[in-house]
Amino acid sequence: MCAPLVAHDAPGLLAEAAAVAALGPDLLEWRVDFFEGIARTGEVVELASAIKRAAGGLPLLFTRRSAREGGQPIALDEAAVAALCRAVCAGGGVDLVDYEMDHDPAHVAAVREAARTHGVGLVLSFHDFQGTPPVEALLGRLRQAAALGADVAKLAVMPRDMGDVLNLLSATWQASQSLPIPLISMAMGPLGAVTRLAGGAFGSALSFGAGQAASAPGQMPIAELRQGLTLLQRAMERRA
């Protein structure tokens, strides 16, 4: 389970990190696009380490979600965002960095190189807030992440009906059987709740649950997510 951190300033982030860590997630995601100081690279690098300390050493995923893929508007251009990701990788305060695979290939390559150099896992992601592409297109996105050198591929879509949810789960299962890297997938919003609970059964390695606040539509409170995941795991173990 991963819980997002979405506070706007440093004191709020440190308090949020400590409070959310106490809820028992496996890792935290700092959604830096919510942070008002995102343009101050040195502050961001130092704050990443401080967040990890405040969370008792929990692994930290660093994410800037672009506005076009559902994130907050920021003043930085993409070259500056890529430079920020590289600096954070070099700073030693994060364990994983998320970068969207549809950005300029040169930026993707630069972030990938920084992540590899500094031992940071690279999550290459794609988010569609408008709908759910067909299964083959979803598979193509996950394969694209692997081909670009991701350590983890991530895919999130917005379903319009349960057929879309089924397509997401089908693509997840097929990719999990063929890709050489772990993957994370989810359908967002109320219709996608089943993918947050049962995604692991289809090959998704991680589910996102809200700590103090959600960062995407459909994230359920982490306590409820844990309960649902535990019940499903027990039921599947009994069947085995």
Give an overview in words.
The protein has a single domain (2-239), classed as Aldolase class I (TIM Barrel, Alpha-Beta Barrel), CATH 3.20.20.70. Helix content is 44%, strand content 15%. It contains eight helices and seven strands; from the N terminus they run E-H-E-H-E-H-E-H-E-H-E-H-E-H-H. It has helices at 10-21, 41-54, 78-91, 105-117, 135-147, 162-176, 193-198, 222-239, and strands spanning 2-5, 27-31, 60-63, 96-100, 121-128, 152-157, 183-187. Helix 2 packs across helix 3 (78-91) and helix 3 packs parallel to helix 4.
TL;DR?
By secondary structure, this protein is an alpha/beta fold. The protein contains eight helices and seven strands, in the order βαβαβαβαβαβαβαα. It has one domain (2-239): Aldolase class I (TIM Barrel), CATH 3.20.20.70.
Can you tag this structure with a few keywords?
240 residues, alpha/beta, TIM Barrel, 8 helices, globular, lyase, EC 4.2.1.10
How many individual helices? 8
DSSP strand tally: 7
Order of strands side by side in the largest beta sheet? Answer: 1-2-3-4-5-6-7
User: What portion of the residues fall into strands of 2 or more residues?
Assistant: 15-25%
Give the CATH architecture: Alpha-Beta Barrel
Radius of gyration: 17 Å
Shape annotation: globular
The domain tally reads 1
**CATH topology descriptor:** TIM Barrel
Organism: Ramlibacter tataouinensis (strain ATCC BAA-407 / DSM 14655 / LMG 21543 / TTB310)
Pathway: Metabolic intermediate biosynthesis; chorismate biosynthesis; chorismate from D-erythrose 4-phosphate and phosphoenolpyruvate: step 3/7
InterPro entries: Aldolase_TIM, DHquinase_I, Type-I_3-dehydroquinase
Subunit structure: Homodimer.
